[in-house]
Amino acid sequence: MSADFSFIPLLTGVVGAVLGVWITISRTKYTAYSADFSKRMEQLTALVDKLGECACRYWIKDVSDKLKVEADYILGLRSSLSVAIDALNKDYKGFNGKQILDAFGKFNTACTGHNFPSREMEPGHPAPLAEILNTAENLKCEILRARKNNYRWRDAVRNPKA
Q1: Of 66, 97, 133, 159, which sits with the fewest C-beta atoms within 10 Å of its C-beta?
Q2: Which residue has the higher pLDDT, 51 or 113?
Q3: 158: Cβ contacts below 8 Å, ≥ 6 apart
């Protein structure tokens, strides 16, 4: 037996162990990343639904839940949605595409446009319920498209700036 022959199994074992550790760490990071990203996407779509519901209630003058029809509450929800989109843009590459910003702008206009905070509509113009619901679904579709496109785990997480 030569020294070279006994060194090969040892080297193979060390390389295999290092590779196994690297694979385990990479898989753990991806699992944590994907779970966090999915949870944030769910929260974002729930916020879109909540804002859409409150805006619809506002325009039809529903008084069954006074908080949900307050103009300040709707503006607060809109602000929360904007902050959430900005936070995701900072944390994940490719999230804040032109399509998401355009869809968010149209949804924002549908919810708080027209003559908001006045509930009076111009003669011949019904409450913008269909517009609110359509733009909400368009925004959610764009968010989910970004979610699907953002699962390239190696490139998806932004490097934190020091």
Answers
A1: 159
A2: 51
A3: 90, 91, 92, 93
